[in-house]
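Give me the fold.
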Amino acid sequence: MPTDDNAPSATNPAIAVWESVLAYAPQLLEHLRGSGRQPGFQMAVAVDGALVGACSGGYADVASGTRMDGDHQFRIASHSKMFTATAVLQLAEAGRLTLEDALADHLPELAGTDAAEVTVGELLSHSSGLTRDGTDSDFWVLGRPFPDRSTLVETAAHGRVIARHEHFKYTNVGYGLLGLVIEAASGLDYRSYTRRQLIGPLRLRHTGPDLDDGSVRLATGYGSLTVAGEPYTLERRTVIEHVDTGALSSATGFYATAADVVRFLSALLPEGPGRSGTGALLGEHSKRRMQRKVEPSGTPGRHYGLGLILQDVHGHATFGHSGGYPGHLTRSWALPETGVALSVLTNAIDGPATSWGEQLIALATLAAREAPASYSGLAPRELARYTGRFAGLWGVQDIVELGGKLFCLDVGSAPDPATTEALEVLDGSRLLSKDPNGFAGYGEELVFEFDDAGAAAFRGPGGMRMVRQADFAVPERLANPAG
C-alpha cells in the first residue's frame, strides 16, 4: 500500500509494475549488498508523487551493529544541484534574476575576473568553463575544510580552465557561486532560502542543505573496500567523518532520505494524469527548461540540462542526479513517461547505487511487458509456487514473478531487457526457456520438484539440478576428496 499522504492515480499501470519489483527488491539488494561487502542501502519508489514502497538493508553503523532503516539520512552530495537549480528557476519566475544575467551583476566582487561574464544559465548547465574544484581540492579527502565564501570567490576569480561553451565541464565551484547568486537575488542566505522555499513546502522532514539540527540520524560513511587492504572484510572499511561543506552547500551539502528524494523529484515531473499531488515548486515552462538537453556530457547517451542529468536507461528517458560525498554514493532518477521516481542511497564511497538502480529499472521494464499466451488463466498462486532462490555449484539463480510473468535470473548479474524473455508455462511442473542466447538454454525445459513449501528444486536448462538455496550442500565426493 502507498505510504505517502497522496494516493497515486489508480489507473497508472506503473503502480502494479513497481509493486511487483518491490516484492523482489529487498532480497535482491540484500544479496548484492552482502556479496559486495557493502555497509548499507536505502531505496524508495514513488509513482505520481506518492510513495509506492521503500526498503533498506545492512548497517547504518557497522561497529555498533545498528541496522539501516528508512529514516536514516544520507549525504546526497551533488543531488544538491537539483535543489539549487530549482531555487534559481523560482527566482527567475519571480523576476529577481534571469538566466542571461552575468555573474558580476549579482556578485560585483567578481568584476574584471575570469568569471565576471559567465552567465547564470551557463553555471546551471556546466557550460561556463570554470574549474571543477580548484587546484587544491583536498577538502574532498578531508585534508582541509571545505571553502568559505571568500575562498570560493578567489577560486572562481582565477578559475578559467576552458572557454565558455567549449565543452561540458562539471564544476562544483560554479554551483557554489549559484548559491551566492541565490543569496544576492533573494536577500536570504542559501540554507534559509532552500529550507523556506523547497524543503518546507514539500514537507521533506528528513532533509537539509547541510549539517544542522535536523541531521541527527546520518548513516555512518565508509571508505572504499580496496583502500582498507587485506583482508577485504566489511569491518575493515574506514569510517569517514561527516563535515560541513561550507560555501559549497549549494553544490554538494544536502542530506536526505530516499523517500524525501523521490518526493522532491516528483515535484519536477511534468503535469499529467494523477500528478496533481506532486507539488508545485515551479511552473511547467521552468520544469521543461530544466529538463531540456543543453550539453552532451562526453559520455554517449548522457546529457546535462539545468541541474539535472538526462540519460536513457533501458529505453526510458530519465532525469535526476548522482551524488558522491566522502563515505556516501547515491543516485536518483525520474521517468517522466510513467511518473516514476526512484532513489538508491548507499553509505560507502564505492557504493554501487547507480548499477543497483539501473537493475531495478531493468526489472520494471520486464514487469511491464505483456504476458505470453501460456499464462492465460493462471492465478497468482500458481505462479508463486515456482518462485524462489536456487543454488548449484556454478552459482545462484532466482525464479522471479514480475508483472504476472516468470523469469529465471542469475543473481548478481543485471538482466538486459533487450535479451531477457519470460519463461513459457508448459504445465504444472515444467517451464520453457526462451533465452535468445544460443550458448545458454534456448528451447530447453526447466522441470520442477515441489514439496509443502513450494519449489524444492529444478533441473535445466542445461540439465543441471538446482536446489532451494537453504538446502544446498557441496556434493560429498567434492567436499571430502580424500575419502
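The longest strand covers residues 50-61.
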